[in-house]
Amino acid sequence: MLAGHVVGSCWYLFGLQRVNQCLRDACGNSDHECRDLIDCGRGDSYQAFAAWKSNESASACFQEDGFPYGIYMKAVNLTNHTSLFTRYSYSLFWGFQQISTLAGNQEPSYFLGEVFFTMGIIGLGLLLFALLIGNMQNFLQALGRRNLEMTLRRRDVEQWMSHRRLPEGIRKRVREAERFNWAATRGVKEELLFENMPDDLQRDIRRHLFIFLKKVRIFSLMDESILDAIRERLKQRTYISSSTVLHRGGLVEKMVFIVRGEMESIGEDGSVLPLSEGDVCGEELLTWCLERSSVNPDGTRIKMPSKGLLSNRNVRCVTNVEAFSLSVADLEDVTSLFSRFLRNPRVQGAIRYESPYWRLRAARQIQVAWRYRKRRLHRLYTAQSGYSL
C-alpha cells in the first residue's frame, strides 16, 4: 500500500515536470514573456496570455503525441483534470499496476530521469515480490512444522517399539496415546513457555487454566494462597480410554483432576461411581498427607509409617481423558506449608463428604460395626435364653 502511494505520487510529480519542460521548450521559440505564464500567479498581461494560449507549440504540450512523454503519457491530461479525487485515485492505481507488473507494459523515452525511474519501479517490484515469497514460505513452513514434528515423533516411536519388540496390542495403545497426547497439547510444552514470564503473569495464567479447581467443593473452601501453591505444581496428563489410573491394592501416587473426559471408580463391593469434568480422584492423599504432617502438643512431629497409601478401588478411563495431576511429593510440600489452614473443619468435612474413598471406607466401617453388633446381640440372646438363633 505504501509502495503504491509512493510510486503513484512520484509518477504524477514527474509527469508535471515533463509538462512543464514541454511548455518551457515551447517558450524558446516565442516571446520570453510566456515563461511568466507557466507558473500560477506570475502573469498579469491578458494580451500575453491570449497570445500564449493560441500558440501551437504550447497547445501541443497537452496532447499525448505532442511531446515524448514516455511513461508519463497518461499523466498529460490528468494534470489538467479538475477533480482532485480522480487525480489521486488514478495515480494510486497506476502505482499498484506498475509494481504488480514490474513496469512490463511501459516504454520509457530517452530521457534519463524517466529511464532511471522505470528501473527503480522494476527494482522495487522485484524486492516486494521477493519479500512476499519469503513471507509465504515462512508461513507455509510454520503451518507444516508441527506436522513435520509429529511425523518425526511417530517415526521415532515406531522405531523404538520395533527395537524393543513390543507386542501388537501394546503398540496399538502406544500409537493411540501418542496421537491423543499430540491432539491435546499440540506439541507445546507449557513449562517452557512459563519460564521467561513474570511471576504475576504466570499466576494469572494458571488461575485461568486451572479455573476448574473452584468447581471442586474440596478446593472451593480453601484460601487463594493455597490454591496458587497447588496450581504451580499441577502437571498436564492425558489418558486413553480403558487406561487404569488407580488399581486396588496399589499405591496412590497422585491426585488427578479431570478436565475433559469420563472415568469410573469401582469399589471393593463392585459399586460404580462415574467421574467426569470437575471431579477428582486420589483425593484421599490430602488427608493422608495432613496426617503425616501432624505434630504433637509438645511440638514434635507424629511419626507415621513410611509406606504409602494403598488404594481400595479401581479407577479407569471410560473415554480419552485430559487431566492435571498433583504428585505425592508436591502435595506434601503444600500440606506442610499450609497445614494450619487445611485443618479447617469445613475443609475436612468436605474431603470426607466428597471423596469416594472416604465414602467407601465409611460404608465398610458401618458394615463392620453392624456385623459386630449383630454377633453381640446373638451371643446375648443365646446366653439369656439358652437357645441359638
Automatic annotation (TrEMBL):
GO cellular component: membrane
GO biological process terms, semicolon-separated: monoatomic ion transmembrane transport
GO MF annotation terms: calmodulin binding; cAMP binding; cGMP binding
Protein keywords: Calmodulin-binding, cAMP, cAMP-binding, cGMP, cGMP-binding, Ion channel, Ion transport, Ligand-gated ion channel, Membrane, Nucleotide-binding, Transmembrane, Transmembrane helix, Transport
Alphabetized PROSITE patterns for the sequence: CNMP_BINDING_3
CDD domains: CAP_ED
InterPro entries membership: cNMP-bd_dom, cNMP-bd_dom_sf, Ion_trans_dom, RmlC-like_jellyroll
Ranges for domain Cyclic nucleotide-binding: 218-294
Compartments where located: Membrane
Transmembrane segments: 115-136
Principal subcellular localisation of the protein: membrane
Topology class, membrane: Multi-pass membrane protein
Entry superkingdom: Eukaryota
Transport is among the record's keywords: yes
Similarity comment: family membership: Belongs to the cyclic nucleotide-gated cation channel (TC 1.A.1.5) family.
Protein name: Cyclic nucleotide-binding domain-containing protein
Originating species: Eruca vesicaria subsp. sativa
